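Q: Structure for this?
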Amino acid sequence: MTDVSPSPVATLPRLGEPAPGFEADTTQGRLALEDFRGSWVVLFSHPADFTPVCTTEFVALAEVAPSLREKGVELLGLSIDSIYAHLAWMETIETSFGVEIPFPVIADHDRAVATSYGMVMPGDSTTETSRCVFFIDPNGIVRAMIYYPLTTGRNVDEIVRVIEALQTTDARQVATPANWRPGDKVILPAPRTVEDANARLAQHPDARHWWFCETDG
Amino acid sequence: MACINPDGTLSVVARNLLLLLETPHTAEASARALGLPLFRIRATVRELSRAGLIDRTAETLSRTDLGGEALILDAESER
């Protein structure tokens, strides 16, 4: 009987744990994750340069990049294309769409970063990175992840919304409800004792329940 | 090394940072002076430090003698 070892299972980053470190060639020089300390990072992968859906995503992300930077957020793209392909594609986007790509893009030709973040989904494609988004906080912790298939362009409004929700949560120790937008009511964490539940109702007589209490955002 | 091009010349950011660091600066002040995000400065400092062109003392960055020579060689190669 032949001894067959199972295929290694790629590990994926986990919420609340440190983001895998890396140092990689990008369109803005060799960058390490550590270079972004103190900023939020939205690390996102795309399947390939010179493809239409990815182009629409880059244009949309470039449009929100200035406002994200004002919020202390840096965008960092990735695919397994070469630096030269990235540069040529970005030049084409600028000439064809009038949009300059202001964020760096990793040329992950050895897939080192893609592998450590689980960006290659063999069931989706064995040769391209899927549309993954990692939200990394200023302490280098993975706070949220989104995975889209090759065929579905990402919702950039949702990426911005997640960042705004995470920053609101950190600033105020609250949670954000479904479809929350900045300015909407936020949710107070539920009390954990009878006394605190009674106190919550006393402090917030309009609350739906002691465990469901909204407050101004 | 991304801050030094394959032909031996300095990258634009590396050259501008070395020129700026004739006077010591912090990374944050360097980013403001050059109009670049802080992550670009940190990355360039890491590479120039490895090459011995920049010294880091606590929070202060300064150009080494070797860094000055690199600028001279870079200027000569431009001619």
